[in-house]
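[job 0417] fold request received: Tetratricopeptide repeat protein
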Amino acid sequence: MERGGENSVPGTVHGQVVQAGSVGEVHYHQRTPEPVIPHQLPPAPKLFTSRRRELAVLDGWLANDEAMVAVVSGPGGVGKTSLALRWLHTTRSRFPDGQLYVDLGAHSSEGPITPETALEWFLLALGVQAADIPPGLSRRQAMFRTVTAERSVSVLLDNAVSAAQVRPLLPTSPRSAVVVTSRWRLSGLAADGARFVDVESFDVESSLELLARAVGPRVASEPDAARELAELCGGLPIALSVVGARLSTRPRRTLSKEVGSLQSGRLAGLTLEDGISVEAVFDLSYVELPPRHARAYRLCALHPGASFGIDAAAAAVGEPVSEVEPVLAGLVEKNLLTEVGDERFRFHDLLRLHARQQAEWDSAAQRNAASRRVVEWYLDRLVGADLALRPTRHRVGPRFHGGVAPLESPRAALAWLDDERVNVREACRLAADQAWDDLTWQFCEAMWGYFLHTRHYDDWFALHELGVPAAVRTGNRAAEAKLRAQLAYTYSGLRQFSEAEREGLRALEIAEQDGDRQGMAVALTELGGVLQGVGELENALERLSRARAIRRDIGPRRAEALCGRRVGEVLAELGRDDEAGAELAAAAETMADLGDHVGQARCLVSVGVIHLRRKRPAQALSHLESALDVLRRVGSPFYEAETLALLGEAAEGIGDLPVARNHYAQALGLFAAAGNPKATTMKARLAALGEP
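[job 0417] inference complete; emitting structure tokens
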């Protein structure tokens, strides 16, 4: 050993020690660790059902062979995570370098997970040593991108709260796929190439399939009760799962018994003993809302119909549309409200129930004020629509004289009424339930123009069952007479002449007692229609002539022309064709002067009927075709259907059976769409013509 050499090893050593006096070069040959392949996904759901459309969409995006980011959004409990897990487990072989998972904690009591923390967990899962993970978001994000750049991984970012939370967690590999679940839309991720899947509630059949998987043959043995359970759960998978779990532990409990329990306390009944409940899921979303959003959530749920437009929502909240619009957008973003059309929204059934329960914390005065604002908004809009359809008609309702502007055109009015018919009906029912009699009867008068164009008889009778008693309670006899006269017309149209006469005579009695000449003219006109319907033509002519005399004295001109048309129709039935033609021509001229194109077209139809009765189908065709052209331009489905039926008769009369068949088929479609009993007549005529 050379002088100055020393053999010593300070510290603790585990293993062998090699000492050398002089070493030229040292080569370290460390074994590279095997790549870590994480498999972090929770188990796939055992009772997964349906979602074929959503799975196919995700498959299609994956087939593009590029980095994929999919945002799966929907309300709480709709099955977003189940869908994501099912798809990611199914496609696991496409990502050999692993599957990453993190619950980002959007609804956690501790608050959401920060991107820095999530990146630390991901890097550790991918084999990076804790000591090598840098501090700070930007440096961790850079390392994550580097580590995943050449890897084929799938990532589930569950319960995300924002695009900013998600964005740093997106790998850069073109062979990666990221699925984000959130109750929010996270539309900001579109800038990162994300695509979006909206998860909706199950339909009834899918709901029944999920129930059957949970409780077995009891679904098949009690099909009606099972269907009702599915409907009570609103197609929401968490609700169905709660019911299924409860029933699976009680094999002797009938589905009918479960239905009864849910009906008596719907949200409260959707709870398991371990605390899993639908209500708790909704509560988590609700408590996170800003105050203005929470108020809109509560008050919009008081809307009487299932869906509503932005104007109705503004009425409920009591704020301008411009201020309510971003609030509704926020509720849509949070999947507490669904946008079902352009500026049109609806609640899921169970969310609506939850929102109404939250509204119970508002005072009764606040709730009633919101409901009344909505009812009055629908009534004012209805008045505007009726003014567009019948601008010169005499009305008794105060809102017709309060400055409400008519809608821009008859076609626009009919389109609005088609969209809002159910909501208008439900608004009237709400007014009746609240004993707002002054509003209830006005709905009936204001729906008159729409009824004439569509003949939705069920709605009409339902409204008048509410409106006539309301008018009586207010002591407004003119309103009562008006509504009873409207009922008389309706009963006559259904050939229920005894009921029509009863209502018409009561309307006439009220008007005569009060010296109400307008009311007398209306009642006499409808009683004339009753007598015409039962074949008492001379008496009908007398009543109609009396009504026309009053109209000539006090107006309006349109009402006088209307009486003239009906006088002409009775004269034609009496065989006095020349007089009938003169009456109809005069009525048509007045309607044209007033710009009432529908009234003019109906006069043309009446002339066509005269020609048909006199076996002159070719002459009838020209008048009926002209009328049909006008009615189609305006968009009047009932009068269009009546005219098509007459055109079918005319075509039969000239031997053109294919054209006749086409006209009858079109008329059948229009009558059937309105639930009109004349659809049966059209079916019979088509059957009589036989197959083409």
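[job 0417] notes: The longest helix spans residues 364-389. Residues 51 and 242 are 19 Å apart (CA to CA).
[job 0417] exit 0
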